[in-house]
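Supplementary Note 3. Input sequence used for the single-chain structure prediction.
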Amino acid sequence: MRILFALITCIFFTLFVSAQKKLSGFFPANTQKQLDYEKQFDAMISTSNQDVWMKFLTSRPHHIGSEQGKANAEYMAGFFKKWGYETELARYDVLFPTPKSRSLELLGDKPYKAKLEEPSLKEDGTSGQKSEQLPTYNAYSADGDVTAELVFVNRGIPADYEELEKMGISVKGKIVIAKYGGSWRGIKPKVAAEHGAIGCLIYSDPKDDGYVEGDVYPKGPFRPEQGVQRGSVMDMPVYPGDPTTPGYGSTKDAKRLDRKDAINIMKIPVLPISYQDALPLLAALEGPVVPDAWKGGLPLTYHAGPSKAKVRLALQFNWDIKPLYNVIAKMKGEQYPDEWVIRGNHHDGWVNGAADPVSGLVAEMEEARVIGELAKKGMKPRRTIVFCAWDGEEPALLGSTEWVEDHADELQQKTVAYLNSDGNSRGFVGFSGSHALEQFFNEIATDVTDPQTGVSIGDRRYAKSLADASSTSKAKMMGNKYMKIGALGAGSDYSPFFQHLGIPSANIGFGGEGNGGEYHSIYDSYDHFTKFKDPGFKYGSALAKTTGRAMMRLANADILPFEYGILVNTISEYMSDLRSMTDQMRIDTDIENKLIKDNIYDLAKDPTLGFATPKAKGSVPYLDFSKIDNAMVQVKARAESLKSSLVSPEKINPSKIVSLNKILFQAEQQLLFAKGLPRRPWYKHMIYAPGFYTGYGVKTMPAIREGIEERNWKEAQEYIEIVASTLMQFSESLQRGVDILK
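The predicted structure, written as discrete structure tokens, is reproduced below.
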């Protein structure tokens, strides 16, 4: 009897808790229905489907323009149609260069000819498909045949050139060699060219992803000595997509720029190499020993150079127009067909591309399958759901950018949100995106179970953050499981939606325990992935449950779950950071100039090192942030007023819901500036953008921040006023929402 009573009590308690649960955006009467759908969704997720699909999609190289690339698009389209989606292949014709010839030689007394090839492995079933593999190269490098001394530039970012200047070393007229990491690869030749270099080599140091980190493939997951990271070096921080059709879709009959007029194609020849090929080149360097932070894991003393022996780099490319195929699958919403929730992951890879991108793609396919099955059972989404598989992401976000540019007006009118994923592996959940969705993702993180630990993915992420925190931070974090999401820079298909059109977007994925050295090599294969990255596709299923939940909640919500107060508070934090950065720059400049004036650097100089005395810099002026301050007071008040008006959403007059929701999902578009960022007008979002010299890395308040960093005070002040104006537009949008609810 006691056992029966306890069981009844437990069931009653579970039902009570479930009944009390709240979901952002849902009326109480609809909450339980949504939770029931999610419970069914979780139960239907299959790991075996993901395994089968990955085997096919990675069976052959599937880069843009390849036979397998098109076959994969048709394969996926067939499934989407079967699952009940209106499906099309959206074709675009884009500029995609491939190598015609590649040669790298060290001349002099100890000549060496680089192999520039990755060997096949008997343990890897697809590594021997030589005739179909793209060679090791950097797409959108310039053609060129250059011979010069070699200089080591560490990661090849602007700060490294400042260090070289102190050592009295110039790269003008030289070929540089840089390590991968520290910034996006395209920044390295860009900065090298700005400093007068005539060629650039990029190598993977074993300290980063090779034998220093662990056993190399096939024994372990890390990069073997001849492994090479392919990748694009197009200057995507200027604009992504087809370089010959900036701002508009690259359709078959589109008017194209002459290639020489495309400002984001690299101006010097660039080539990626293995650490086996890098070793004799680095051994030939002379000059000073590099700082400790520059040293890698190779068995040599790292010198800055230049080398006495010269290096010859010769590259030629086929500059072809290739077709790409985006898969676009729509399930029409029953109640709001003109409100779209879009989900995307790319399908092209540099070679077989198991981790990048197919691991995320098969999770997306499983989401689409289960939602399709639920729809057949009666769960018709209220809003239109769109699943996309993008082609051409690897070279330059080609497929997504061309589709977005081609449908820009319609997307800004209809898109509620865009949810992206890319590669996925074992570990911890990560969310980055529009901070108006931060509370929304925190709720989802409490409702998905981590497959390894059995706790929620939010709790596991919290435990990781707590373990990694400093002692001071730990004390502040204890008991506070709220998760701040990251800001979006660049590097995947959310960029055109978010930074060009202002559509609320997010990037979602798991990682941290599936590290390896297979990235963009022939070893990113089914065999490598299933052994080291996510055996059993357990975290593929976790991704499907996480992003599938987000899709269903956004599709079915009564009131869209945007919390703009969080975005406003985040912008306030960015502004505080800008003030602190400017104040610190002023202090540092004053100290540096005094040291130069007092000849302290000359007194400390060791003539054997040969470093130069720094040049004095102009003083840092006081910037006037008052217009932003005034705008923030108003926008904060209106965000709070809108939030308080939505406390009891079920009481809102149904006739006002459509208008209110449209204001909510279009509000972030008011943070766009039509003329865009300085020298890169394609990027129009005034709060988030990839950095001009960081590539993937985000710059928040980018125009102001980069103006300050580059000491362009006039431009920084100009954009302070522009940002203030966009904040006022944003404020007016929030006020329209408040007015509807009065």
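The first strand starts at residue 86 and ends at 106. Confidence is low (pLDDT under 50) at residues 1-19.
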